[in-house]
């Protein structure tokens, strides 16, 4: 943990120091300007259509070992779902940018079990009717620094964190159910990441941007790793207004231990997205 924290802190410090140095360094008369689509602020909102893959195991500290559950195959969850995503970007300088993004995936299912499943403190038997849910809220903050800046492109590194709020549960349903039988498990896990980003202009209206990040970390009772990526093709439809088509993915694993329960979560969201963004403020030089 200490080595990971030290590494993450060093990278963050270096990138911020480079950003400060760039702000007070080279004269605007001699340095190359960034691509035409780079402005002070950018707000984006759109729809995300991920294909979901979810594997979870939740047991307790009394030796009750949880079943490895595939939520799509074992609980009848739909792999495909639509949701929304949002992003705000601030370009502090021609090389430095800050990003804040959010998306939520909420899924539920009513299903008749095809096998026995142990989840939390209870075992749910084959042919039992259940109601299950799996909800995630994902916030992401990052700082990026462009080492290469040109009127046609920019390439840089970034450091940031995904904060994953996850809540899942199973409840027994049916007319013959007596006392309430249900189990739930929730965590909020900060998952730092480190990666690369870039963009490229194809002309006066078209440009592409991409990002890739990864990190693994153990913090107290949480152990996690994350792999995320994003690729977009953008079209300037009107002054400051862009339309983008993209492909976005987030794949994570978290092992968590709470007072009573021990959980293992492995899930992935990968799929196309469509968004509209508006840029405003002064052009960055």
Describe the structure.
- With 285 residues, this protein is mostly beta strands.
- It has a single domain, classed as Lipocalin.
- The protein contains 2 helices and 14 strands.
- The protein has helices at 2-24, 71-74, and strands spanning 39-48, 51-60, 69-70, 83-91, 96-112, 117-119, 122-124, 129-149, 153-173, 182-201, 206-219, 222-238, 241-257, 261-283.
- The protein has a 10-stranded antiparallel beta barrel with strand order 1-4-5-8-9-10-11-12-13-14.
- It is elongated.
- The model is unreliable at 1-8 (pLDDT under 50).
Order of helices and strands: HEEEHEEEEEEEEEEE
Strand line-up in the sheet with most strands: 1-4-5-8-9-10-11-12-13-14
Number of strands: 14
Number of domains: 1
Strand content: over 45%
User: Percent of residues in helical segments?
Assistant: under 10%
What characterizes the major β-sheet? 10 strands, antiparallel, barrel
The CATH homologous superfamily is named OPCA outer membrane adhesin/invasin
CATH topology: Lipocalin
Gyration radius, to the nearest Å?
22 Å
Mean pLDDT value:
85
Structural class: mainly beta
Shape: elongated
Q: Report the CATH architecture.
A: Beta Barrel
Low-confidence stretches: 1-8
CATH C-level class is Mainly Beta
Helical element count? 2
**N-end to C-end Cα span:** 40 Å
Detail the topology: elements first, then pairings.
Layout: H1 2-24, E1 39-48, E2 51-60, E3 69-70, H2 71-74, E4 83-91, E5 96-112, E6 117-119, E7 122-124, E8 129-149, E9 153-173, E10 182-201, E11 206-219, E12 222-238, E13 241-257, E14 261-283
Antiparallel strand pairs: 1-4, 1-14, 2-3, 2-14, 4-5, 5-8, 6-7, 8-9, 9-10, 10-11, 11-12, 12-13, 13-14
Protein name: Outer membrane protein beta-barrel domain-containing protein
Organism: Chitinophaga caeni
């Amino acid at each position: 943990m200490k080595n990971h924290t030290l590494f993450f802190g060093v990278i963050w410090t270096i990138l911020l120091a480079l950003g400060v140095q760039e702000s007070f360094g080279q004269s605007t008369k001699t340095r190359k300007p960034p691509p035409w689509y780079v402005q002070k602020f950018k707000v984006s909102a759109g729809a995300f259509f991920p294909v979901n893959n979810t594997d979870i195991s939740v047991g307790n500290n009394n030796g009750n070992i949880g079943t490895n559950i595939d939520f799509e195959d074992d609980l009848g969850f739909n792999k495909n779902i639509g949701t929304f995503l949002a992003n705000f970007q601030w370009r502090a300088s021609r090389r430095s940018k800050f990003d804040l993004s959010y998306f939520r995936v909420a899924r539920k299912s009513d299903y008749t079990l095809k096998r026995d499943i142990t989840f939390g403190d209870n075992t749910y038997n084959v042919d039992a009717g259940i109601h299950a849910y799996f909800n995630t809220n994902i916030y992401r903050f990052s700082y990026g620094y462009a080492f290469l800046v040109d009127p046609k492109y920019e390439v840089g590194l970034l450091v940031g964190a995904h904060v994953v709020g996850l809540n899942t549960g199973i409840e027994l349903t049916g007319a013959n159910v007596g006392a309430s039988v249900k189990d739930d498990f929730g965590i909020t896990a900060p998952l730092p990441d480190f990666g690369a980003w870039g963009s490229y202009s194809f002309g006066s209206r078209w440009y592409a941007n991409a990002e890739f990040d990864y990190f693994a970390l153990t913090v107290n009772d949480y152990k996690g790793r994350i792999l995320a990526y994003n690729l977009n093709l953008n079209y300037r439809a009107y002054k400051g207004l862009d339309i983008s088509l993209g492909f976005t993915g987030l794949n994570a694993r978290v092992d968590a231990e709470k007072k009573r329960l021990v959980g293992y979560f492995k899930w992935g969201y990968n799929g196309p997205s469509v968004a509209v963004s508006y840029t405003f403020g002064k052009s960055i030089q």
